[in-house]
Amino acid sequence: MKKIEYDVLIIGLGMAGASLAWKLSNTNLRILAIDSKPWNRFGDKPCGDAISKEHFDNLGMPYPEGKELEEKVEGIKLYSPDMKTVWTVKGEGFEIDSPTYIQRLANEANKRGVEILDLTTAMKPIVNNGKVEGAILFNRRTNETIEVRSKITVDATGYSMSFRSKLPFEFPVTETLDDKDADIAYREVLYTKDEIEDYKYLRIFITQKASPGGYWWYFPKGPNKTNVGLGIQGGMGYPSIHEFYNKYVDYYAPDIDKNRLVVKGGALVPTRRPLATIVWNGIAVIGDSAFTVNPVHGGGKGSAMISAFCVAKAITNAFEIEDFSAKGLWSANECYIERYGAKQASLDLFRRFLQKLNDDEINYGMAKRVIREEDLLEASANGDLQLSVAEKAMRVIMALGKPSLLFKLKIVAEYMKRVKELYKNFPTDPSNLIKWKNSVDSVILEFNQVLQK
Predict the structure, then answer these.
(1) Distances (CA, A) of 424 to 27, 338, 346
(2) If DSSP states are collapsed to H, E and C, what string results for 22-66?
(3) Is residue 372's pLDDT more than 80?
Protein backbone atom coordinates (compact mmCIF):
# COMPACT_ATOMS: atom_id res chain seq x y z
CA MET A 1 0.00 0.00 0.00
CA LYS A 2 1.26 3.44 -0.94
CA LYS A 3 1.78 5.74 2.08
CA ILE A 4 1.90 9.57 1.92
CA GLU A 5 1.88 12.36 4.50
CA TYR A 6 0.15 15.74 4.15
CA ASP A 7 -0.72 18.60 6.43
CA VAL A 8 -4.36 18.71 5.32
CA LEU A 9 -6.57 16.17 3.54
CA ILE A 10 -9.79 17.55 2.02
CA ILE A 11 -12.41 14.94 1.10
CA GLY A 12 -14.89 16.28 -1.43
CA LEU A 13 -14.59 19.09 -3.99
CA GLY A 14 -18.02 20.64 -4.09
CA MET A 15 -18.50 24.30 -3.20
CA ALA A 16 -17.27 23.82 0.38
CA GLY A 17 -14.24 21.65 -0.38
CA ALA A 18 -13.15 23.68 -3.42
CA SER A 19 -13.51 26.96 -1.47
CA LEU A 20 -11.37 25.54 1.33
CA ALA A 21 -8.71 24.27 -1.08
CA TRP A 22 -8.68 27.70 -2.77
CA LYS A 23 -8.34 29.52 0.58
CA LEU A 24 -5.58 27.23 1.90
CA SER A 25 -3.66 27.35 -1.38
CA ASN A 26 -2.38 30.74 -0.26
CA THR A 27 -0.50 29.06 2.63
CA ASN A 28 2.62 26.88 2.63
CA LEU A 29 0.72 23.81 3.81
CA ARG A 30 0.97 20.47 2.02
CA ILE A 31 -2.60 19.78 0.92
CA LEU A 32 -4.30 16.87 -0.82
CA ALA A 33 -7.88 17.30 -2.05
CA ILE A 34 -9.87 14.37 -3.45
CA ASP A 35 -13.25 13.75 -5.04
CA SER A 36 -15.00 10.55 -6.08
CA LYS A 37 -16.15 12.15 -9.35
CA PRO A 38 -14.01 12.79 -12.43
CA TRP A 39 -12.51 16.28 -12.62
CA ASN A 40 -15.05 17.53 -15.19
CA ARG A 41 -17.90 16.69 -12.79
CA PHE A 42 -16.61 18.42 -9.65
CA GLY A 43 -19.51 20.43 -8.21
CA ASP A 44 -22.11 18.57 -10.25
CA LYS A 45 -24.89 18.63 -7.65
CA PRO A 46 -28.59 19.38 -8.26
CA CYS A 47 -29.56 22.71 -6.67
CA GLY A 48 -30.92 26.17 -7.44
CA ASP A 49 -27.40 27.58 -8.18
CA ALA A 50 -28.18 31.00 -6.68
CA ILE A 51 -25.70 32.78 -4.38
CA SER A 52 -25.95 36.22 -2.77
CA LYS A 53 -23.27 38.68 -3.86
CA GLU A 54 -22.51 39.57 -0.24
CA HIS A 55 -20.98 36.12 0.37
CA PHE A 56 -18.28 36.77 -2.22
CA ASP A 57 -17.65 40.27 -0.85
CA ASN A 58 -17.52 39.20 2.80
CA LEU A 59 -15.35 36.14 2.26
CA GLY A 60 -12.90 37.43 -0.32
CA MET A 61 -13.97 34.84 -2.90
CA PRO A 62 -13.66 35.61 -6.62
CA TYR A 63 -16.82 36.58 -8.49
CA PRO A 64 -18.09 34.13 -11.09
CA GLU A 65 -17.17 35.25 -14.60
CA GLY A 66 -17.53 34.12 -18.21
CA LYS A 67 -19.41 30.81 -18.49
CA GLU A 68 -19.47 30.55 -14.68
CA LEU A 69 -21.94 33.46 -14.47
CA GLU A 70 -25.27 32.65 -16.08
CA GLU A 71 -27.18 35.67 -14.82
CA LYS A 72 -26.96 38.53 -12.34
CA VAL A 73 -29.84 38.45 -9.88
CA GLU A 74 -31.62 41.59 -8.68
CA GLY A 75 -34.03 40.04 -6.19
CA ILE A 76 -36.66 37.43 -5.38
CA LYS A 77 -40.39 37.35 -6.02
CA LEU A 78 -42.27 35.30 -3.41
CA TYR A 79 -45.73 34.03 -4.39
CA SER A 80 -48.57 33.01 -2.06
CA PRO A 81 -50.24 29.62 -2.66
CA ASP A 82 -53.22 31.24 -4.41
CA MET A 83 -50.81 33.43 -6.46
CA LYS A 84 -52.79 36.53 -5.45
CA THR A 85 -50.03 38.04 -3.32
CA VAL A 86 -46.50 38.61 -4.56
CA TRP A 87 -43.73 39.97 -2.37
CA THR A 88 -40.62 41.39 -3.97
CA VAL A 89 -37.40 41.32 -1.95
CA LYS A 90 -34.49 43.07 -3.65
CA GLY A 91 -30.90 41.91 -3.31
CA GLU A 92 -27.92 41.36 -5.59
CA GLY A 93 -26.74 37.87 -6.38
CA PHE A 94 -25.58 35.46 -9.04
CA GLU A 95 -27.14 32.50 -10.80
CA ILE A 96 -24.08 30.41 -11.57
CA ASP A 97 -22.99 27.35 -13.48
CA SER A 98 -21.85 25.58 -10.32
CA PRO A 99 -19.55 22.92 -11.82
CA THR A 100 -17.72 25.47 -13.97
CA TYR A 101 -17.16 27.84 -11.04
CA ILE A 102 -16.12 25.08 -8.64
CA GLN A 103 -13.72 23.59 -11.19
CA ARG A 104 -12.17 27.03 -11.59
CA LEU A 105 -11.52 27.16 -7.83
CA ALA A 106 -9.99 23.68 -7.95
CA ASN A 107 -7.81 24.60 -10.93
CA GLU A 108 -6.52 27.76 -9.29
CA ALA A 109 -5.81 25.89 -6.04
CA ASN A 110 -4.01 23.19 -8.00
CA LYS A 111 -1.82 25.76 -9.77
CA ARG A 112 -0.85 27.17 -6.37
CA GLY A 113 0.31 23.78 -5.10
CA VAL A 114 -2.73 21.86 -3.85
CA GLU A 115 -2.53 18.27 -5.09
CA ILE A 116 -5.84 17.03 -6.47
CA LEU A 117 -6.97 13.46 -7.15
CA ASP A 118 -10.22 12.77 -8.96
CA LEU A 119 -12.03 9.40 -9.00
CA THR A 120 -10.71 8.88 -5.48
CA THR A 121 -12.78 7.75 -2.50
CA ALA A 122 -12.05 7.85 1.24
CA MET A 123 -12.69 4.24 2.24
CA LYS A 124 -12.22 4.63 6.01
CA PRO A 125 -10.73 7.04 8.54
CA ILE A 126 -7.50 6.45 10.40
CA VAL A 127 -8.19 7.02 14.11
CA ASN A 128 -5.71 6.74 16.95
CA ASN A 129 -6.18 7.73 20.61
CA GLY A 130 -9.38 9.68 19.89
CA LYS A 131 -7.87 11.66 17.04
CA VAL A 132 -8.37 11.48 13.26
CA GLU A 133 -4.98 11.02 11.61
CA GLY A 134 -5.98 10.66 7.95
CA ALA A 135 -7.77 8.16 5.75
CA ILE A 136 -7.39 5.10 3.58
CA LEU A 137 -8.12 6.14 -0.01
CA PHE A 138 -8.84 4.20 -3.17
CA ASN A 139 -8.00 5.78 -6.54
CA ARG A 140 -10.14 4.24 -9.28
CA ARG A 141 -8.05 5.87 -11.98
CA THR A 142 -4.95 3.89 -10.94
CA ASN A 143 -6.67 1.06 -8.98
CA GLU A 144 -4.42 2.00 -6.09
CA THR A 145 -5.03 1.96 -2.33
CA ILE A 146 -3.33 4.86 -0.54
CA GLU A 147 -2.76 5.46 3.16
CA VAL A 148 -2.78 9.21 3.74
CA ARG A 149 -1.60 10.54 7.08
CA SER A 150 -2.64 14.13 7.78
CA LYS A 151 -2.60 16.55 10.69
CA ILE A 152 -6.15 17.66 9.82
CA THR A 153 -8.76 15.85 7.72
CA VAL A 154 -11.77 17.75 6.36
CA ASP A 155 -15.10 16.12 5.50
CA ALA A 156 -16.67 18.05 2.60
CA THR A 157 -18.63 15.05 1.28
CA GLY A 158 -21.98 16.83 1.13
CA TYR A 159 -25.31 15.29 2.07
CA SER A 160 -23.83 11.77 1.89
CA MET A 161 -21.73 12.53 5.02
CA SER A 162 -19.73 9.53 3.84
CA PHE A 163 -16.57 10.17 5.85
CA ARG A 164 -17.70 11.47 9.23
CA SER A 165 -20.38 8.77 9.41
CA LYS A 166 -17.57 6.19 9.65
CA LEU A 167 -15.95 7.84 12.68
CA PRO A 168 -16.41 6.44 16.21
CA PHE A 169 -19.82 7.29 17.64
CA GLU A 170 -18.30 9.20 20.55
CA PHE A 171 -16.97 11.87 18.16
CA PRO A 172 -19.50 14.77 18.35
CA VAL A 173 -19.15 15.41 14.61
CA THR A 174 -20.94 12.09 13.87
CA GLU A 175 -24.33 13.69 14.68
CA THR A 176 -26.98 12.18 12.40
CA LEU A 177 -29.74 13.83 10.37
CA ASP A 178 -33.41 13.24 11.17
CA ASP A 179 -35.37 12.62 7.95
CA LYS A 180 -37.83 15.37 8.92
CA ASP A 181 -34.94 17.86 9.09
CA ALA A 182 -34.20 17.43 5.39
CA ASP A 183 -35.86 18.27 2.10
CA ILE A 184 -35.90 15.96 -0.88
CA ALA A 185 -35.19 18.18 -3.87
CA TYR A 186 -35.46 17.70 -7.63
CA ARG A 187 -34.72 20.14 -10.44
CA GLU A 188 -34.36 20.41 -14.19
CA VAL A 189 -32.55 23.06 -16.23
CA LEU A 190 -34.32 23.74 -19.51
CA TYR A 191 -34.60 26.34 -22.23
CA THR A 192 -37.85 28.28 -22.52
CA LYS A 193 -40.12 28.79 -25.51
CA ASP A 194 -40.07 32.58 -25.17
CA GLU A 195 -38.03 35.23 -23.37
CA ILE A 196 -38.60 35.10 -19.61
CA GLU A 197 -40.34 38.11 -18.10
CA ASP A 198 -38.28 39.78 -15.33
CA TYR A 199 -35.56 37.17 -15.76
CA LYS A 200 -33.28 38.94 -13.28
CA TYR A 201 -35.64 37.95 -10.46
CA LEU A 202 -35.80 34.52 -8.89
CA ARG A 203 -39.29 33.16 -8.23
CA ILE A 204 -40.34 31.12 -5.19
CA PHE A 205 -43.81 29.58 -4.91
CA ILE A 206 -44.96 28.60 -1.42
CA THR A 207 -47.56 25.85 -1.50
CA GLN A 208 -48.21 22.97 0.86
CA LYS A 209 -50.38 21.33 -1.78
CA ALA A 210 -47.76 21.16 -4.53
CA SER A 211 -44.61 21.02 -2.34
CA PRO A 212 -45.48 20.06 1.26
CA GLY A 213 -42.93 21.36 3.74
CA GLY A 214 -40.91 23.03 0.97
CA TYR A 215 -41.50 25.20 -2.08
CA TRP A 216 -41.30 25.38 -5.87
CA TRP A 217 -38.64 27.53 -7.50
CA TYR A 218 -38.10 29.08 -10.92
CA PHE A 219 -34.60 30.56 -11.17
CA PRO A 220 -33.83 32.07 -14.60
CA LYS A 221 -30.32 31.50 -15.98
CA GLY A 222 -30.68 34.21 -18.56
CA PRO A 223 -33.53 35.36 -20.82
CA ASN A 224 -34.23 31.92 -22.34
CA LYS A 225 -33.06 29.34 -19.79
CA THR A 226 -34.26 28.42 -16.30
CA ASN A 227 -33.67 26.16 -13.32
CA VAL A 228 -37.04 24.84 -12.15
CA GLY A 229 -37.66 22.45 -9.30
CA LEU A 230 -39.07 21.83 -5.85
CA GLY A 231 -38.30 20.49 -2.41
CA ILE A 232 -40.58 18.54 -0.07
CA GLN A 233 -40.03 17.70 3.58
CA GLY A 234 -38.56 14.28 4.19
CA GLY A 235 -39.75 11.66 6.68
CA MET A 236 -43.44 12.53 6.25
CA GLY A 237 -44.55 9.68 3.99
CA TYR A 238 -45.36 11.96 1.07
CA PRO A 239 -45.54 10.55 -2.47
CA SER A 240 -42.45 10.53 -4.70
CA ILE A 241 -41.09 13.98 -5.53
CA HIS A 242 -41.35 13.04 -9.21
CA GLU A 243 -45.13 12.77 -8.79
CA PHE A 244 -45.25 16.36 -7.53
CA TYR A 245 -42.91 17.56 -10.27
CA ASN A 246 -44.80 15.94 -13.13
CA LYS A 247 -48.17 17.02 -11.77
CA TYR A 248 -47.37 20.70 -11.20
CA VAL A 249 -44.46 21.70 -13.43
CA ASP A 250 -46.74 22.99 -16.19
CA TYR A 251 -48.43 25.27 -13.67
CA TYR A 252 -45.27 26.82 -12.20
CA ALA A 253 -43.20 26.76 -15.38
CA PRO A 254 -45.61 26.88 -18.33
CA ASP A 255 -42.99 28.38 -20.66
CA ILE A 256 -40.37 25.60 -20.51
CA ASP A 257 -39.50 23.61 -23.61
CA LYS A 258 -39.39 20.01 -22.39
CA ASN A 259 -37.60 18.95 -25.55
CA ARG A 260 -34.63 21.17 -24.65
CA LEU A 261 -33.58 19.69 -21.33
CA VAL A 262 -30.01 20.57 -20.26
CA VAL A 263 -29.68 18.58 -17.04
CA LYS A 264 -31.81 17.03 -14.33
CA GLY A 265 -31.28 15.43 -10.93
CA GLY A 266 -32.26 15.18 -7.29
CA ALA A 267 -30.57 15.57 -3.91
CA LEU A 268 -31.15 15.46 -0.18
CA VAL A 269 -30.88 18.88 1.49
CA PRO A 270 -30.37 19.25 5.28
CA THR A 271 -32.64 22.03 6.59
CA ARG A 272 -31.77 22.40 10.28
CA ARG A 273 -29.32 24.07 12.63
CA PRO A 274 -25.62 23.30 12.03
CA LEU A 275 -23.70 20.48 13.68
CA ALA A 276 -23.15 21.21 17.36
CA THR A 277 -19.45 21.42 16.49
CA ILE A 278 -17.86 21.46 13.05
CA VAL A 279 -14.45 20.44 14.44
CA TRP A 280 -13.00 17.80 16.72
CA ASN A 281 -9.61 16.17 17.24
CA GLY A 282 -7.92 16.24 13.83
CA ILE A 283 -11.21 16.60 11.94
CA ALA A 284 -13.29 19.44 10.47
CA VAL A 285 -16.65 19.22 8.70
CA ILE A 286 -17.91 21.82 6.20
CA GLY A 287 -20.79 22.42 3.79
CA ASP A 288 -23.84 20.17 3.59
CA SER A 289 -22.11 17.48 5.64
CA ALA A 290 -22.01 20.00 8.52
CA PHE A 291 -25.70 20.91 7.97
CA THR A 292 -24.87 24.48 6.93
CA VAL A 293 -27.84 24.91 4.55
CA ASN A 294 -30.31 27.75 5.27
CA PRO A 295 -33.32 26.02 6.89
CA VAL A 296 -35.93 28.31 5.32
CA HIS A 297 -34.90 28.83 1.70
CA GLY A 298 -32.64 25.76 1.35
CA GLY A 299 -29.73 27.68 -0.17
CA GLY A 300 -26.44 26.10 0.79
CA LYS A 301 -23.65 27.37 -1.44
CA GLY A 302 -23.07 30.68 0.33
CA SER A 303 -23.08 29.12 3.79
CA ALA A 304 -20.80 26.34 2.52
CA MET A 305 -18.34 29.07 1.54
CA ILE A 306 -18.67 30.59 5.03
CA SER A 307 -17.89 27.26 6.72
CA ALA A 308 -14.86 26.82 4.44
CA PHE A 309 -13.68 30.36 5.27
CA CYS A 310 -13.95 29.73 9.03
CA VAL A 311 -12.26 26.33 8.89
CA ALA A 312 -9.44 27.74 6.73
CA LYS A 313 -8.75 30.38 9.38
CA ALA A 314 -8.87 27.78 12.15
CA ILE A 315 -6.53 25.43 10.29
CA THR A 316 -4.03 28.22 9.67
CA ASN A 317 -4.14 29.10 13.37
CA ALA A 318 -3.81 25.44 14.42
CA PHE A 319 -0.56 25.11 12.47
CA GLU A 320 0.76 28.33 13.99
CA ILE A 321 0.20 27.01 17.53
CA GLU A 322 0.80 23.36 16.54
CA ASP A 323 -2.43 22.19 18.16
CA PHE A 324 -4.69 20.03 15.97
CA SER A 325 -7.06 18.98 18.74
CA ALA A 326 -10.66 20.14 19.10
CA LYS A 327 -9.39 22.98 21.28
CA GLY A 328 -6.82 24.04 18.68
CA LEU A 329 -9.51 24.15 15.97
CA TRP A 330 -12.31 25.53 18.17
CA SER A 331 -12.21 29.01 16.62
CA ALA A 332 -13.90 27.54 13.52
CA ASN A 333 -17.10 27.12 15.55
CA GLU A 334 -16.92 30.63 16.96
CA CYS A 335 -16.36 32.10 13.50
CA TYR A 336 -19.18 30.14 11.86
CA ILE A 337 -21.70 30.80 14.62
CA GLU A 338 -20.98 34.52 14.53
CA ARG A 339 -21.21 34.76 10.74
CA TYR A 340 -24.10 32.37 10.09
CA GLY A 341 -24.74 29.58 12.61
CA ALA A 342 -26.70 31.54 15.25
CA LYS A 343 -29.02 32.91 12.58
CA GLN A 344 -29.33 29.46 11.03
CA ALA A 345 -30.34 27.87 14.34
CA SER A 346 -32.98 30.55 14.82
CA LEU A 347 -34.31 29.98 11.30
CA ASP A 348 -34.54 26.26 12.05
CA LEU A 349 -37.44 27.12 14.38
CA PHE A 350 -39.01 29.47 11.83
CA ARG A 351 -38.85 26.62 9.30
CA ARG A 352 -40.66 24.26 11.69
CA PHE A 353 -43.39 26.88 12.15
CA LEU A 354 -43.83 27.45 8.41
CA GLN A 355 -44.09 23.71 7.75
CA LYS A 356 -47.07 23.52 10.14
CA LEU A 357 -49.08 26.19 8.30
CA ASN A 358 -51.66 25.27 5.69
CA ASP A 359 -52.15 27.13 2.41
CA ASP A 360 -55.12 29.13 3.72
CA GLU A 361 -53.05 30.42 6.64
CA ILE A 362 -50.16 31.31 4.34
CA ASN A 363 -52.52 33.10 1.91
CA TYR A 364 -54.08 35.03 4.78
CA GLY A 365 -50.77 35.87 6.44
CA MET A 366 -49.23 37.20 3.22
CA ALA A 367 -52.34 39.08 2.04
CA LYS A 368 -52.91 40.76 5.43
CA ARG A 369 -49.18 41.32 5.96
CA VAL A 370 -49.28 39.42 9.25
CA ILE A 371 -45.73 38.55 8.25
CA ARG A 372 -44.37 41.14 5.84
CA GLU A 373 -41.49 41.40 3.41
CA GLU A 374 -39.56 43.40 5.98
CA ASP A 375 -40.03 40.69 8.61
CA LEU A 376 -38.91 37.98 6.22
CA LEU A 377 -35.88 40.01 5.17
CA GLU A 378 -34.93 40.69 8.80
CA ALA A 379 -35.34 37.04 9.74
CA SER A 380 -33.34 35.93 6.72
CA ALA A 381 -30.54 38.42 7.38
CA ASN A 382 -30.25 38.12 11.15
CA GLY A 383 -32.46 35.28 12.37
CA ASP A 384 -34.68 37.75 14.27
CA LEU A 385 -38.44 38.01 14.09
CA GLN A 386 -39.25 41.21 15.95
CA LEU A 387 -42.39 43.34 15.79
CA SER A 388 -42.92 46.68 17.54
CA VAL A 389 -45.89 47.12 19.87
CA ALA A 390 -47.62 49.46 17.41
CA GLU A 391 -47.13 47.07 14.51
CA LYS A 392 -48.41 44.18 16.59
CA ALA A 393 -51.56 46.13 17.48
CA MET A 394 -52.22 47.02 13.83
CA ARG A 395 -51.77 43.44 12.78
CA VAL A 396 -54.17 42.24 15.45
CA ILE A 397 -56.79 44.58 13.99
CA MET A 398 -56.09 43.39 10.45
CA ALA A 399 -55.92 39.71 11.35
CA LEU A 400 -58.86 39.26 13.70
CA GLY A 401 -59.96 36.41 11.50
CA LYS A 402 -56.83 34.41 12.40
CA PRO A 403 -55.94 35.22 16.03
CA SER A 404 -54.32 31.80 16.46
CA LEU A 405 -51.85 32.64 13.69
CA LEU A 406 -50.74 35.80 15.50
CA PHE A 407 -50.45 33.90 18.77
CA LYS A 408 -48.26 31.25 17.12
CA LEU A 409 -46.14 33.98 15.52
CA LYS A 410 -45.49 35.55 18.91
CA ILE A 411 -44.39 32.19 20.34
CA VAL A 412 -42.12 31.56 17.35
CA ALA A 413 -40.42 34.94 17.79
CA GLU A 414 -39.80 34.22 21.50
CA TYR A 415 -38.26 30.81 20.87
CA MET A 416 -36.15 32.11 17.99
CA LYS A 417 -34.71 34.67 20.38
CA ARG A 418 -34.01 32.00 23.03
CA VAL A 419 -32.14 29.77 20.62
CA LYS A 420 -30.12 32.64 19.23
CA GLU A 421 -29.10 33.63 22.78
CA LEU A 422 -27.90 30.07 23.41
CA TYR A 423 -25.73 30.27 20.32
CA LYS A 424 -24.34 33.62 21.39
CA ASN A 425 -23.19 31.82 24.54
CA PHE A 426 -21.52 28.96 22.69
CA PRO A 427 -18.95 27.27 24.97
CA THR A 428 -15.40 28.55 24.71
CA ASP A 429 -14.01 25.10 25.56
CA PRO A 430 -14.84 21.68 24.02
CA SER A 431 -15.37 20.18 27.49
CA ASN A 432 -18.64 22.14 27.83
CA LEU A 433 -20.05 21.17 24.43
CA ILE A 434 -22.37 18.35 25.52
CA LYS A 435 -23.99 20.40 28.27
CA TRP A 436 -24.58 23.27 25.81
CA LYS A 437 -25.96 20.93 23.13
CA ASN A 438 -28.39 19.42 25.64
CA SER A 439 -29.70 22.92 26.38
CA VAL A 440 -30.28 23.59 22.67
CA ASP A 441 -31.97 20.22 22.15
CA SER A 442 -34.21 20.88 25.16
CA VAL A 443 -35.43 24.23 23.79
CA ILE A 444 -36.14 22.72 20.37
CA LEU A 445 -38.05 19.80 21.91
CA GLU A 446 -40.08 22.26 23.99
CA PHE A 447 -40.78 24.36 20.87
CA ASN A 448 -41.96 21.31 18.93
CA GLN A 449 -44.35 20.41 21.73
CA VAL A 450 -45.77 23.95 21.83
CA LEU A 451 -46.32 23.86 18.05
CA GLN A 452 -48.38 20.69 18.40
CA LYS A 453 -50.90 22.38 20.73
Answers:
(1) 31, 8, 11
(2) HHHCCCCCCEEEECCCCHHHCCCCCCCCEEEHHHHHHHCCCCCCH
(3) no
| C-beta separation of 217 from 91 below 8 A | no
72 contacts: CB under 8 Å, gap ≥ 6: 92, 93, 94, 95, 200
| Closest C-alpha to 304, from 154, 433, 135 | 154
| pLDDT tier at 371, thresholds 50, 70, 90 | low
Classify residue 285 as exposed, middle or buried by CB count within 10 Å of its CB (0-12, 13-18, 19+).
buried
Q: Name the pairing type of β-strands 182-192 and 225-233.
A: antiparallel
Is the pLDDT at 385 greater than 70, yes or no?
no
Residues whose CB falls within 8 Å of the CB of residue 248, separated by 6 or more in sequence, listed in order? 210, 211, 216, 230
Q: What are phi and psi of 217, to 5 degrees?
A: -135, 155
Nearest to 101 by CA among 19, 185, 21: 19
- Element (H or E) spanning 190, and its range? strand 182-192
Residue 293 contacts residue 2 (beta carbons within 8 Å): no
The answer to whether the beta carbons of residues 236 and 352 sit under 8 Å apart is no
The pLDDT value given to residue 191: 98
Nearest CA-CA partner of 183 in 219, 239, 230, 217: 230
* pTM of the full structure: 0.94
Residue 9: name the closest of 99, 182, 165, 125 by CA. 125
Q: Give, as one character, the DSSP assignment of residue 179.
A: G
Reply yes or no on whether the pLDDT at 400 is more than 70: no
pLDDT at residue 395, rounded to an integer: 56
Q: What is the pLDDT of residues 185-208, one digit of tens each?
A: 999 999 999 999 999 999 999 999
User: Other C-beta atoms within 10 Å of 391: how many?
Assistant: 14
